[in-house]
Amino acid sequence: MKHQISTLEETQKLIAAERILLIAGDEAVLAKLPKGRWVGGSTPYFMTPGKGGMVSRDSLFVSDITDAVATASIKKYTADSLPQVYKDCPDNGFSYIIIPALSSAHMAFALNAPNYESFGFNPLIGWIAAVHLDDLDKVKPKVFNGETGEAIEDGAIVLHAALPPGKVAEIGIINPFQQGPGDTLTFEQDGFSAADVLVNGQKQNFAEYMMKVASERDDSNEALVEGQKRNLDEYMKEKNLVTKLQLPLVADYYGALVNISFFNRIDKDKGVQFYAPVFKGVKYKLAAPLPDYVGAFAKLLDAEKVQEENILFSCNCVLNYLYSNLENKKTASFVGPVAFGEIAYQLVNQTLTYLQIK
Amino acid sequence: MEVPAATHQAWSDIVTGKKAYTLKFLAVKILIARLTQSVSLDPSPDNVQASAAQLRELFVKNMAIPAVKEDLTTIFG
Q1: What is the pLDDT of residues B14-49, one digit of tens each?
Q2: A91, A135 contact by CB (below 8 A)
């Protein structure tokens, strides 16, 4: 597998050579690519092999997987047909999915994926397409079907691949967050937002609860944002994002820690919004503070013992990118798009996800 | 290693929460979390058996993955 930051012209040459490509980049650049054996999703944020974290509206992040797969087919799904996605994966293969953020397909997948037929029978890895934070209210994230040239605002694009004999695909996640020692939070219904929360079983207005938590925290810090040192609280406020709520909710799924990130500024009347849904009956805790993300991440990388040459795909979360100040910093051999959500069988947040071929 | 039949008690013990193991395979963990919740809401024998069968099938489909083999050994020895 070869992962690289490429220009439009370099990528056009790869497509012309009929390489099988996973591409991420700004929508305007993706739209200029010719038809071919590729799938793409919008984001201007990347973790790159050379520079580490970077923002670019001109460059493309390209993974050439041609030599790693035996066959590959591309299929478009709607929110209604997504329940077929696990069934469509070939035996001894994997599926790579990109879904535009905030689309109905995003909502449907997030809420229902673990209930889809054949869940987990083959690896499903992918990400939620994003936009530049400056464009949040102006531009919709998109995914691209390279075979048809179609740009999709609502739906999912999936590359189903079979592996050569003797090879196996395996998904991994690296989540630096742990459950904190505080209150146990549960919700009365599934959803991307919650007006109320049960705090240790007692019903409360969730926004009021979180405002209280935020006022007790000191999460303010500085970060390098597009080359400029910025106060992160001020930057997030400008972008209408949650301030002082950098730590996600964390659920324990039989030992797998799954984060739910806070999406929008908390509003007492509108409730609290998330990047992934909370589920009724699941017990959540706010994550324990993580003062040194890069350091914590490095320790987890050592423990994973992943060989760089085996990584077919990886992606990280835009919130980790911002909160952990990843611009110009490297996360070892894990490179790829920075997304509005990561998919490792199901939607996860603030988590590095990757697929190895061994 | 053969994957024990869905009627093996260990599958039911996992989905009913009677026994817990430290497992490695991510999809198994996610599925068990969902199945144990489902069984806690509907502990009927039919649902327990269907959940046990679904969990077993996930192992069968992923037997090529080393972590799945390790998890099987953790459960069945």
Answers
A1: 999 999 999 999 999 999 999 999 999 999 999 999
A2: no
- The three state secondary structure string of A89-132 is CCCCEEEEEEEECCCHHHHHHHHHHHHCCCCCCCCEEEEEECCC
Residue A240 DSSP label: T
* A contacts of B66 (beta carbons < 8 Å): 170
Instruction: Tell me the two tokens of residue A319.
Output: 């919130």
Residues of A with Cβ-Cβ distance to B33 under 8 angstroms: 253-254, 256, 282
- Among A224, A183, A222, A230, residue whose Cα is nearest residue A206: A183
**Taking CA atoms, what residue in B is nearest to A353?**
B26
Query: Residues of A with CB below 8 A from B58's CB?
Result: 119-121
Surface-to-core class of residue B11, CB atoms within 10 Å of its CB (0-12 exposed, 13-18 middle, 19+ buried): buried
Model pTM? 0.91
Cβ(A167)–Cβ(A267) below 8 Å: no
Pair A66, A161: CB distance under 8 Å = no
- Which residue on chain B is closest to A172 by alpha carbon? B26
Q: Do B30 and A120 touch (CB under 8 A)?
A: yes
Complete DSSP assignment for A254-304: TTEEEEE-B-S--BTTTBEEEEEEE-TT--EEEBPP-S-HHHHHHHHHHHH
* ipTM at complex level: 0.93
* Token code pair at residue B18: 């009677």
Write the pLDDT tens digit of every residue in A146-165: 999 999 999 999 999 999 99
